[in-house]
Amino acid sequence: MKKAVFVNPKFYYTIINSLKGKNEEKPIIYCRNTVLLPISIGSTIIVHNGKDYLKVYVSENIIGHKLGEFSASRRRYFFKKGKLKQKGKK
Questions:
Q1: Cβ atoms within 10 A of the Cβ of 41, count?
Q2: What are the phi and psi torsion angles at 46 (to 5°)?
Q3: pLDDT of 16-54, one tens digit each?
Q4: Which of 23, 48, 52, 68 could disulfide-link to 17, CB 3.0 to 4.6 Å?
Q5: What secondary structure, in 3-state letters, does the chain show?
Q6: Which residue ranges form the domains of the chain, and what is each CATH number?
């Protein structure tokens, strides 16, 4: 059995109001587990990643994904290259 999709009603209420022209502000989202629905296509959403606010433009390709997937909250880690040992010399 699969879990139901989480949709934050307050988020979509602000999206609908901004489409009608009542709200000119872009919604700030703290709920990163909200799934994007087709009603939000063409809007720009500001997602908080714990440190900064990142702008996410909603297109057809990202419908069905969660908002947290588009704002990385951790830095990428790269391993440092160590000194290579010379072969053949002892």
A1: 13
A2: -100, 120
A3: 887 777 666 666 677 888 899 898 888 888 888 888 888
A4: 23
A5: CCCCCCCCHHHHHHHHHHHHCCCCCCCEECCCCCECCHHHCCCEEEEECCCCEEEEECCHHHCCCEHHHHCCCCCCCCCCCCCCCCCCCC
A6: 25-70 (3.30.860.10)
